[in-house]
Amino acid sequence: MPPDTSSSPQTIYLKDYTPAPYLASSVALRFELFEDKTLVHAEVRYEKNPAAKNSELVLHGQDQTLLSVQLNGEKYSDYRLEDNRMLLADLPAQFTLTISSEIHPESNTALEGLYKSQGTFCTQCEAEGFRRITYFQDRPDVLSIFSVRIEADKALYPVLLSNGNLVERGDLPAGRHFTAWHDPFPKPCYLFALVAGDLVRVADIFTTRSGRKVDLHIYVRSGDEGQCDHAMASLKKSMRWDEERYGREYELDLFNIVAVSDFNMGAMENTSLNIFNTKLVLAQQETATDSDFISVEAVIAHEYFHNWTGNRVTCRDWFQLSLKEGLTVFRDQEFSADMNSRAVQRIDDVDQLRRLQFPEDASPLAHAVQPDNFIEISNFYTMTIYEKGSELIRMQHTLLGPDTYRKATDLYFQRFDGHAVTIDDFVQCMADASGRDMRQFHRWYKQAGTPSVQASGRYDANTASYTLSLKQSQPDTPGQTNKQPLLIPLAVGLLNEQGEETHATQILEMTEREQEFRFEGVNARPVPSILRGFSAPIKLSTDLSDDDLRLLQLKDTDGFNKWEAGQTIALRTIQRVIADAEADISQFVADFGTLITQGLNQEVDKALLARALSLPSISVIGQAQAVVDPAAIDQARDVVLKAIKRAHKDALAELYAQNASQGVFEITPQAMGRRALRNTVLELLTVTNGTGCAARAQAHYQQADNMTDRVAALSSLADSTQPQREQVFDDFYQRFQQYQLVVDKWFSLQVIAKRDSLFTDFAALRQHAEFNIRNPNRVRALYSAFAVNNPVKFHDPSGQGYALLRDAIIELNSINPQIAARQVTPFREWRRYTPALQTQMQAALQTIMDNPKLSSDVFEVVSKCLK
Ligand code: B3K
Ligand code: ZN
User: Fold this and answer.
1) C-beta contacts of 637-643 below 8 A and 24+ residues apart
2) Cα(252) to centroid of ligand 2, in Å?
3) What mean pLDDT is reported for the chain?
4) 378 Cα–ligand 1 center, Å
5) How far apart, in Å, do the first and last CA atoms of the chain sit?
6) What crossing angle do the helices spanning 723-736 and 707-717 adopt, rounded to 10°?
7) What's the predicted TM-score (pTM) here?
8) What is the pLDDT of residues 593-639, one digit of tens each?
9) In the prediction, which pLDDT does 7 show?
10) Distance between Cα 21 and ligand 1 center (Å)
11) What DSSP line would sit under 283-323, residue for residue?
């Protein structure tokens, strides 16, 4: 059946952009919050936009009851309401429009606009949620000065917050009170925010480089205030870093962060009132893992950095989303690299890009970093816009060098502060500051798909030269064929056969489809280290032998390429086992032993060693297969893991013991590296799932004084059928059941198991009293953890895995369309799987498609997958 045609989804095109017919210089909002309804009164000053040709004012409005409209204080009815829009024609050049409407945050399950999370009113307006609050030109190129007054019951909602500075507060009759806020900086309505609740405040002060004091407040539920120290410290570090690295100072007197439990994404950068998912604020030793601590630091920074890259300089339209997101991700990645270990940060970022963005680029949902059309912009908050977008900024940083890049960003802020601009405007600043022609580079923004580069080398002893031949190609993606060659910066260094670096890193700028680069003064056959630091988001294939890779793994000066060389050898080894279960892997297993011995006998970077001792994931291995068979990959991976354990059991046990906790818990790169190493070793030691493994994992759990170690123990036990599994999981639940974020982990850790009872276990968890399909964190804890992190069972030949996700998507479609559409992701690459799996995945997608009341969010992704 076709989708409900009464609201047939419409495609929006970048080429159709026109300036807004009216500017809205000031917006005064008054909210009357009640338990059964909210009244919104909006008084907006409009002026004809000299840059616009159209004169019809189009206001967006959705899910609200219009109560009254006044033009310059007089009742007005000369408007048309159609398709979630109010159309007003024949208007004067300047006027004030006052609109009152009634909305229902208490029953808003989409978590867009104004909604309630565990008794707290909060907002999420990006991208198009403001239209669920009042009728307005809900587009990012309309910038207004906002004044906001909030009225609510004083006992239930003692805290009433909005953007900017608090200008007034007072009591009202009937136990009510109000606050009034003024934000002096013009902003698009997607940055509007409101919070009303019974929250406690953690306070600190930051002194900016020019000596101004900024109040920093984090608001959380009572009882959670002890879990905010890390977020507060991260905020202060971010503020300092942005001053030092980008010359950006915070300009308001107050910066608020509010944590809520029901949130579609991670966080939102509303001007001076960031709203966060609790998952990205709360962190303490007992309940948060090291990776949670790292994420909190990164996301606090990310949202803070948006103050300049997103808020002060914003997007002209949503096709420019990566203007703020790609740039802000690059900024947060560099911040994290400065705060922690640069090599580890790069490895983890690239690993994420490969696991999550490369598959997107290879799927029917592939899109450019600057897409040219969409149905639902919410579907475009993707790894491509964010992570590939960040890689594009990184390449510009590499091409210009840090000093010129900084000049270019200074120019960008100076030119565009207070404006809504485009990606082209940003790239033009890069061109103007450097004098470089950036036109070829700009293709990266327009062409979807991951480029491939093939490299082969030729050494000529007579001329003492080495020639690197490179070939680039771009895959076809939906709607795009015959793509142009890109400007690809390749960081390359040369090592000699003793592993000494003879030629330090240089950036080769590849511009042609096929190109050669010659290195002079090469006195012996070199081993090239290509794509150091992953200098471009490409798939590289080389003619390096396993011996060459082993040399790089042991000797390269580039931390990323050292790791990469080891991963390539591991991938080749697993591929050999997939092709032949009896393949000889003794060399690989022996080399693994060398790494372990190094870990035992030398000063090594433990975080890097932990990553070197981890095999590529099933998802990454699958990308190298013509036809993906997750069960076959898993089996081969298991063969290799078990061979490693058998060969190096004693050395591993020694490495495990050597890295036991020293008693004091710290969140330093060294302490996290030690835990990562010990937990990676635990995983290897328990891969056979026998009685000894279960006992070791249980002991690990019992000795743990922090969540990282507890999670590692549970993860090692997930697949076990020994009695310790239940004991440990039960203890964990009893101990932490009052912590929602830990209960999320408890759900996730059970559904990553491959053991036979998985589907029964899953059904029990789905029925568990703590499961709540309206809470996005819980949905992700159960369904995303399963479908993304358990490829073996998700792709179970019975089709049960697909059915679970299919049914959840159908249920979520009417509750929370954004979350429903997000859950389609694991199906998107269905054509890459074995024929039997393809048939089942296609059928699941078709069943979703046949749903008569499909939201435009789900319609867009499912119809594109099936096309
Ligand atoms: N800008 C927000 C994302 C909003 C998502 C809207 N569906 C968070 C961030 O990227 O910082
Ligand atoms: Zn962002």
Assistant:
1) 637/574, 638/687, 639/577, 639/581, 639/585, 640/570, 640/573, 640/574, 640/577, 640/585, 640/588, 640/589, 640/615, 641/615, 641/684, 641/687, 642/687, 642/688, 643/585, 643/589
2) 20
3) 97
4) 9
5) 16
6) 150
7) 0.98
8) 999 999 999 899 999 999 999 999 999 999 999 999 999 999 999 99
9) 54
10) 27
11) --TTT--HHHHHHHHHHHHHHHHTTTBTTTBEESSGGGHHH
Q: What percent of the chain has pLDDT over 90?
A: 99
CATH topology of domain 737-867: Zincin-like fold (1.25.50)
Three-state secondary structure string covering 715-755: HHHCCCCCHHHHHHHHHHHHHHCCCHHHHHHHHHHHHCCCC
pLDDT value at 5 more than 50:
no
Name which residue sits closest to atom 8 of ligand 1, judged by CA. 268
> Around Cβ 623, how many Cβ atoms within 10 Å?
20
- Shortest-distance Cα residue to atom 10 of ligand 1: 325
- φ/ψ region of 534 (left if φ > 0, alpha if ψ in -120 to 50, else beta) reads left
* Pocket of ligand 1 contains residue 376 by CB under 6 Å: no
Q: Are strands 22-33 and 144-153 parallel, antiparallel or unpaired?
A: parallel
Contact between 213 and 207 under an 8 Å Cβ cutoff? The reply is yes
The pLDDT of residue 448 is: 98
Q: Which two tokens stand for residue 689?
A: 């799932």
- The CATH H-level (homologous superfamily) assignment of domain 316-446 is Neutral Protease Domain 2 (1.10.390.10)
Judged by DSSP in three states, 74 sits in strand
Judge if the beta carbon of residue 267 lies within 6 A of ligand 1.
yes
Ligand index nearest the alpha carbon of residue 280: 1
Take residue 61 and report the two structure tokens written for it.
């409005």
Report which ligand 1 atom has the smallest distance to the Cα of 266: 8
- Identical fold for domains 316-446 and 737-867, yes or no, is no
Residues facing 519 on adjacent strands: 466
Q: Residue type for 834, please?
A: T
Nearest CA to ligand 1 atom 7: 378
Q: What is the CATH number of domain 18-197?
A: 2.60.40.1730
Ligand nearest to the CA of 267: 1
Closest atom of ligand 1 to 264 CA is 7
Options 126, 151, 303, 325, the catalytic residue: 303
Q: Name the residue type at position 235.
A: L
389 CA from centroid of ligand 2 (Å) = 11
Closest ligand 1 atom to Cα of 306: 11
Establish whether residue 265 lines the binding site of ligand 1, counting it when its CB lies within 6 angstroms of any ligand atom: yes
Q: Is 281 in the pocket of ligand 1 (CB under 6 A)?
A: no
Question: Helix, strand or coil for residue 610?
Answer: helix
The per-residue pLDDT for range 118-177, each reduced to its tens digit, is 999 999 999 999 999 999 999 999 999 999 999 999 999 999 999 999 999 999 999 999
Specify the residue with its C-alpha closest to ligand 1, atom 5. Answer: 126
Minimum-distance ligand 1 atom for the alpha carbon of 325: 10
Check whether 3 has a pLDDT greater than 80: no
Return the SS3 of 110: coil
User: What is the CB neighbour count within 10 angstroms for residue 231?
Assistant: 24
Q: What does the domain layout of the chain look like in residue ranges?
A: 18-197, 316-446, 460-476+483-536, 737-867
Q: Is 332 in the pocket of ligand 1 (CB under 6 A)?
A: no
Could you tell me which CATH number the domain at 460-476+483-536 has? Answer: 2.60.40.1840
| pLDDT of res. 317 | 99
**Angstrom distance (rounded) from CA 785 to CA 382:** 18
- Catalytic (active site) residue 303: yes
d(CA 487, CA 438): 9
